[in-house]
Amino acid sequence: MQLRNRAAYGFLAPYLMIFATFWIWPIISSFLMSFQNTRVNPWVFSLGANWGRLFNDPAFYNALKNTMIILIVQVPVMITLATVMAVLLNSPLLKARGLFRFAFFAPVVVGEVAYAAVFRLMFNLDFGIINKLLNSVGIPSISWFAEAPAAMALLIIAVTWRWAGYNAIIILAGLQSIPGDVYEAATLDRVSKARQFIYITLPLLKPIILFCVILSIIGSMQLFTEPMLITNRGGPGGGTETLGLFLYRQGFTSLNFGYASAIAYTMAALAIVISLLNLWVGRDQK
Amino acid sequence: MAELSLKNVVKRFGSYEIIRNASLDVADGEFVVFVGPSGCGKSTLLRMIAGLEHITDGEIHIGDTLVNDVEPADRGIAMVFQSYALYPHMTVEQNLAFGLRMTGNPKADTDRRVQRVADILQIKELMQRRPKQLSGGQRQRVAIGRAIVREPRVFLFDEPLSNLDAELRVQMRVEISRLHKELGTTMIYVTHDQTEAMTLADKIVVLRGGNIEQIGAPLDLYDNPANQFVAGFVGSPKMNFMSAEVTATDSDNVTLTLLNQGNVRLSLPLKNPPPAIGDAVTLGVRPEHFAKAGEGVADLTIAVDVAEHLGNTSYIYANVAGGEQLIIEREESRNEIKTDTLTVAIKSSHALLFDKTGNRLR
Questions:
Q1: Superfamily of domain A48-281, CATH level 4
Q2: Do residues A74 and A167 make contact, with C-beta atoms less than 8 angstroms apart?
Q3: pLDDT digits (tens, 9 = 90+) for B133-163
Q4: CB contact under 8 A, B87 and A182
Q5: Which residue from A147, B41, B267, B352 lies 20 to 30 Å from B189 (Cα-Cα)?
Q6: Where does the record place the ABC transmembrane type-1 domain (chain A) (predicted)?
Q7: DSSP conformational letter for B230
Q8: Which pTM was predicted?
């Protein structure tokens, strides 16, 4: 090995060691663990203990269903909202643009626990502002934490509030990379503003939107903080338990590491499959 | 096809005036070139005609219609942008047809027009390609095609060749000229390149600092520039300017001393009211308007700095006092050109005279 290569590896070594210990090894170890019954001592190889159970476990299917509902409802709503926000932020008519940009991005930098606490207060059955507002327009109070559909809606609202602005900023960067004279050319081509948006803006934003969708899919698959803190550990009665929370419960409450590993691999596989599906659907058709 | 006229058009951003009282008449089918240095307002003026910029004051007429408040799409104009502004996600064919399809033009007519444009511009084999798969020249052709397909009354070109290399620029220049002959449509073309202006235009509009300095046919501008700016801007290589002082005048002549050429004195016929004795003036002589020694009103002996031999002609560059540079064109055999000093004569027939504010005296 040449001296300069050796020096390079020398400098890289501390990072590589940490990477191998805390990334590579856990990935391999958890894969092996997913084939072991970790409820007995010593652990023994067993395909049925984890993978077999996974396919027959109603709690897993419940968590999968909840995650998919969030994915299917929340991601499209949030990305649509983010696109609208980005277009508004990009409008030359908007005053105090910097302030709005900050305001939309701010939820991401708010501490998770603080934001969860505020949402719990806002959606409180008896004195939360949301029910007060609903009452003021004649809608009776909703028991946000006691009814599964309402709790799910709350979760979706919370996640959307937290991440829409973040996606809007990414989409805004995409919007700003579209040259203005393309729109001027379209204006001279007698294309209305609405059609310019549909036929020029959206197709040119497609790669950016796809990127945001995939980031959001991965985020939704891992959703943990909100069901843990806002809807009180996936309540009511597992009504908002997501795969992330289910994994946590199996691994760190029941200490069944083998099963938790199998769940983790399932989540990763699902995220990859859904993302690939998205890329395939959104591919450039020649 | 349509004529176009601007009447006292003004563009102001806050208190800053970009265009001052621009008035211009363009005849039906005329090729007009706006030329001037960067920031002179030529592109702004074009964009105001297109409707992409509002005008602060004045009137713009296209045909018989006052278009001040008419939307760009309804002005009957098409524009070719400097950056081409092609729709990057569409094929060439889609780029050409997009506007027509969006406005619900019948498919058969759209197809016919797109085919015709593809024939005119010889881009048939490119129809299924995307803009990023095209060279600069091909993109420019498509951009021009997109303008033609709309069959506009007026074509607007905003520095369409400035992103192309020198060879392609010449080729496209010829094509645009041919296109104008073929279509016979009114065209307005913005450039900072005076060669493009000279070769393409029926009429040139020279702008500086938001003012129209002169409007005229290319050779009129070349032979009879209204002021020192136009004289210097039109023509390549540039006209030589020599600082001088008026030393004597009479009813028909003015006598000057060239300050940076060893106080050479010369006398020029002058019909206009003469400047006062002692006034600073500038003598303007184009590089090709120097004669052989003894054949003009005064001889200049210059130290040759660089000689450029282009084959058919040669340019002699000489640095003289006061930071002035003289460029002299010599068509005689390159072997006869002395490489150290050269004596040439100023011909009175082609010598121009400007006062110290740049206004032309003769």
A1: MetI-like (1.10.3720.10)
A2: no
A3: 999 889 999 999 999 998 899 999 999 998 8
A4: yes
A5: B352
A6: 64-278
A7: H
A8: 0.82
